[in-house]
Write a structure and sequence with these properties.
35% helix
């Protein structure tokens, strides 16, 4: 098992607690041990996970949000 790393992602399109739950659920579905922290006003998502940054971003994109490069 690989060690968890922390990814900081800038996400556009999140506006409410439903968005926070959708993003969190999408990441946890791929990594049950992931720790997701969302700063809604800043659009910042901090994730401690064994997933790569690309896998994490893709999970968020599949929920309909835009991840900044």
């Amino acid at each position: 098992m690989s060690l968890a790393t922390t990814h900081q992602l800038q996400v556009k399109g999140m506006s409410c607690q439903h968005c926070v739950k959708a993003v969190t659920k999408a990441i946890v579905a791929l990594d049950a041990d992931a720790v997701v922290s969302v700063e809604l006003p800043q659009g910042a998502v901090k994730v401690q996970t064994k997933l790569s940054r690309e896998e994490t971003a893709q999970a968020i994109i599949e929920e309909g949000y835009e991840v900044q490069p």
